[in-house]
Amino acid sequence: MNIILIGFSGCGKTTVGKEISNMTGMDFVDTDLLIEIKLSLKIPDIFAYYGQRYFRFVERMVIDELLFSQNKVISAGGGAFIDPVNIRNLKEIGKVYFLNASLDKILREGIPPDRPLLKDEERSMIEKLYYSRLPFYKQADFEIIIDDKTPSVIAQEIINTYCSYRKNYDNIKESFLRGD
């Protein structure tokens, strides 16, 4: 099983993912970084040269390549979870955690400068994108409200939920194998 982090750009998926990795010893994987490595280009350049459609195609490929991953913390890009194929595949390989940051928190802390869909956008456009993605994010297995929490507190909350899930899963599996 893997821990998969989803949420809007700037919500802290990478920071929290690295924190979980440090606390658990699980490997950390960032799909955006995998895309950059695969294409030898930064994300803004991929969007500039090839466009969003091509980026989403490569993003789906990268997520497909993770289908046999185990014991990893995976940070998925902000738009990865709007693709039904990615939703299915990510839920198949682990438990998905939606890091739910309010729009005010995201705008207050600033959108990372390397996010091509949000670069130079006005609040109304960012707000529109944010609210259009929420129904997709809400399909996650768990929702973690992250406003006013430190990355380590968020990471510990995810680890606690994950361990509780794993313990219940293992108990059910043992009971099934015993024929209870």
What does this 3D model show about the protein?
By secondary structure, the chain is α/β, with parallel strands linked by helices. It has a single domain (2-174), classed as Rossmann fold (3-Layer(aba) Sandwich). Helices cover 57% and strands 13% of the residues. The protein has a 5-stranded parallel β-sheet. Helix 3 packs across helix 4 (52-65). The mean pLDDT is 89.
Give a brief rundown of this model:
With 180 residues, this protein is α/β, with parallel strands linked by helices.
From the structure above, extract its key features:
alpha/beta, 8 helices, 57% helix, 5-stranded parallel sheet, 180 residues, Rossmann fold
Quote the average pLDDT: 89
What would you report as the Rg, rounded to the nearest angstrom? 17 Å
Q: What is the level-2 CATH architecture name?
A: 3-Layer(aba) Sandwich
Uncertain runs are none
H/E series, N to C?
Answer: EHEHHHEHEHHEH
Share of residues in helices: 55-70%
Strand order of the biggest β-sheet: 2-3-1-4-5
CATH class equals Alpha Beta
Task: Enter the CATH topology name.
Answer: Rossmann fold
CATH superfamily: P-loop containing nucleotide triphosphate hydrolases
Oligomer kind: single chain
Give the terminus-to-terminus CA distance: 24 Å
User: Could you tell me the number of beta strands?
Assistant: 5
Portion of residues in beta strands equals 5-15%
Outline type:
globular
Structural class: alpha/beta
**Count of DSSP helices?**
8
Number of domains: 1
Give the biggest sheet: 5 strands, parallel
List the helices and strands and how they pair.
Layout: E1 2-6, H1 13-24, E2 27-30, H2 31-39, H3 43-50, H4 52-65, E3 72-75, H5 84-93, E4 94-100, H6 103-109, H7 123-137, E5 142-145, H8 151-178
Parallel strand pairs: 1-3, 1-4, 2-3, 4-5
